[in-house]
Amino acid sequence: MPMNYQQILNEIYEEIQPELLRGKVADYIPALAEVEKGQFAMTVTLADGTVYSVGDSKKAFSIQSISKVFTFTLALDIYSKELYKRVGVEPSGNPFNSLVQLEYENGIPRNPFINAGAITITDSLISYYKDEYKTLEVIMNFIREISGNPTLSFDQVVANSEMEHGDRNLALARLMKSFGNFENDVLGSVMTYFKHCAITMNTEELSRSMLFLAFGGTDPISGKVFVSTRKAKRINAVMLTCGHYDASGEFAFHVGLPAKSGVGGGIAAVVPGVMSIAVWSPALNKYGNSHSGTLALEKFTTKTGLSIF
Ligand code: GLU
């Protein structure tokens, strides 16, 4: 009998209620500190485009670090393995904005999902497109296409708020520049990074946008190839090993899916060959990952038996 995903999501929604106020919204970006706790949404998208949702699935939130999956996809498509000269693919085991590791590893970030790695990726895209505004437009258009929403945008207030408190990210970029691993203007590149982090999406759009990664780089609905199967495999592998900062091991252990979280409380995940999933709940655990979002995904893989293991 086919699984009743709507019923499973409804059950999760009920069970998650007592958890929703646990954790803390990200307050190091003041504009995000204003987001109300207690909100929750979850969406599943199948290969034929069937969508199942619960909660506030039409409510847009700041995707933050989840945008790093999309910029990594674009950069890997352009540079292939040349990219790995500038950024590694090992879990960092350190907080997402750590400077220490970057110093003793000579300005080469551990992976594309910690801040230093994602800022390098954005810098590499600016080198390719020769201009930060053009680069942002390419990133936005890519995400508009894969999400199916041609009007997606970013929140300028959130991007400005990050820049006002962006000393650590600017420091990461300058440190990489001192090691020769940064090519463009630091301020402009970091601002472009903040802008793509400030993109707002709801869980229906986010889930839709991850579908190509669940199906080997090809969107199963339109048939469009966004990246090769080999590259999609690598992106999923990096999501599995590095997608949740220094809690990536724990997430793999409890949930068992390639996924990427963001400090806006979103998590996007793929079940290869089956579906993509997005969940959002703004209160974060101590690692900066959505507390209830993580639990909801754990419940989902437990109830459905779907995981890569
Ligand atoms: N824009 C955020 C930062 O640079 C992204 C962090 C995150 O979502 O993990 O701090």
Helix content: 40-55%
Q: Measured on Cα atoms, how large is the radius of gyration?
A: 18 Å
Low-confidence stretches: none
According to CATH, the homologous superfamily of the largest domain is DD-peptidase/beta-lactamase superfamily
Taken in chain order, the helices and strands follow as HHEEEHHHHHHHEHHHHEEEH
Q: What ligands can be seen in this structure? A: glutamic acid
The oligomeric status of these chains comes to single chain
Structural class: alpha+beta
- How would a crystallographer describe the biggest sheet? 5 strands, antiparallel
Summarize the entry for a quick read.
The chain is of the alpha+beta class and 309 residues long. Helices cover 47% and strands 10% of the residues. Glutamic acid binds next to loops.
Ordered list of secondary-structure elements with their pairings:
Elements: H1 5-16, H2 30-33, E1 41-46, E2 51-55, E3 61-62, H3 67-79, H4 100-104, H5 115-129, H6 132-147, H7 156-164, H8 167-178, H9 186-197, E4 200-201, H10 203-209, H11 211-214, H12 229-242, H13 248-254, E5 259-261, E6 266-271, E7 275-280, H14 291-304
Antiparallel strand pairs: 1-2, 1-7, 3-4, 5-6, 6-7
Helix pairs in contact: 1-14, 3-5, 3-12, 5-8, 5-9, 6-9, 6-10, 7-9
The structure holds glutamic acid (GLU).
